[in-house]
Design a protein that fits this description.
Length: 212
């Protein structure tokens, strides 16, 4: 059986990546392409608990190092339990955030050394995405969208503008360094326009273009 396709969705807060991931999943369903939807943190049974520890506002200060290690622990479990088995079954895996989030948030946002993070990412999982969609927009626009959901802010969303701008900078820099893996989509437009742009840039890399 041919190995599946691993596609990750990345972006700053409220970039609309989850919305677009669901739309892409609907397209795959229409063409009867076997796929799964998953996310980090939170894609495995253990990580549902880890997600609460990482993102909920706590009555104590979660140390940046603890935060980093929790994201990595989440990934180690998620890749082994969910992503690898699905790829081995030939499925397309649509994953909301992955290792590039660690570079962007813990590297850009928290200021951890990039070389160290790359080593830690590798030590956690040797699995590289086949494709990464980066939904890019000014951080102020995304934070406003996230706030408009009316659910309040989680621990990461509560960080200041400087933090979120640094996250965006690292994403764009990583995309520049890995042009063949990244597809950058302008996320500062309507849902429909983002979808159009995503599909135009992605279609030749999807198994469905052979079926059309
Ligand atoms: N993190 C994660 C790390 O720090 N390190 C790591 O290694 C990893 C893996 C995860 C947090 O963890 C951090 C990053 C994050 O801070 P989360 O709760 O999983 O947090 O949330 P996010 O991944 O940030 O995703 P969100 O669901 O908050 O936002 P999305 O996916 O960017 O956006 P989406 O699609 O949910 O849309 C947000 C809102 O905007 C609307 C939607 O309807 C929704 O209300 N919207 C639009 N509005 C206007 N125009 C458009 N084009 C719109 N598209 C969507």
């Amino acid at each position: 059986m041919t190995r599946g396709l691993f596609i990750t969705f990345e972006g700053t807060e409220g970039s609309g990546k989850t919305t677009q991931l669901r739309l892409l999943a609907a397209l795959l369903k229409k063409y009867r392409i076997s796929h799964i939807i998953t996310r980090e943190p939170g894609g495995s049974r253990l990580s549902t608990q880890l997600r609460r520890w990482i993102l909920n506002k706590l009555d104590y200060n979660l140390m940046p190092r603890t935060e980093l290690l929790l994201f990595l622990a989440d990934r180690a479990q998620h890749v082994g339990e969910v992503v690898e088995p699905a790829l081995q079954q030939g499925k397309v895996v649509l994953c909301d955030r992955y290792a590039d989030s660690t570079l962007a948030y813990q590297g850009g946002g928290r200021g951890f050394d990039m070389k160290l993070l790359k080593i830690l990412n590798q030590a956690t999982s040797l699995l590289k995405p086949d494709l990464t969609l980066l939904f890019d927009l000014p951080v102020e626009v995304g934070l406003r969208r996230a706030l408009d959901r009316g659910q309040g802010k989680d621990r990461m969303e509560s960080e200041g503008l400087k933090f979120h701008k640094a996250v965006r900078r690292v994403y764009l820099e990583t995309a520049r360094q890995e042009k063949s893996r990244f597809i950058v989509v302008n996320a500062n437009q309507s849902r429909e326009a983002i979808y159009q742009e995503m599909i135009e840039k992605l279609i030749d890399r999807l198994p469905i273009h052979k079926k059309r």
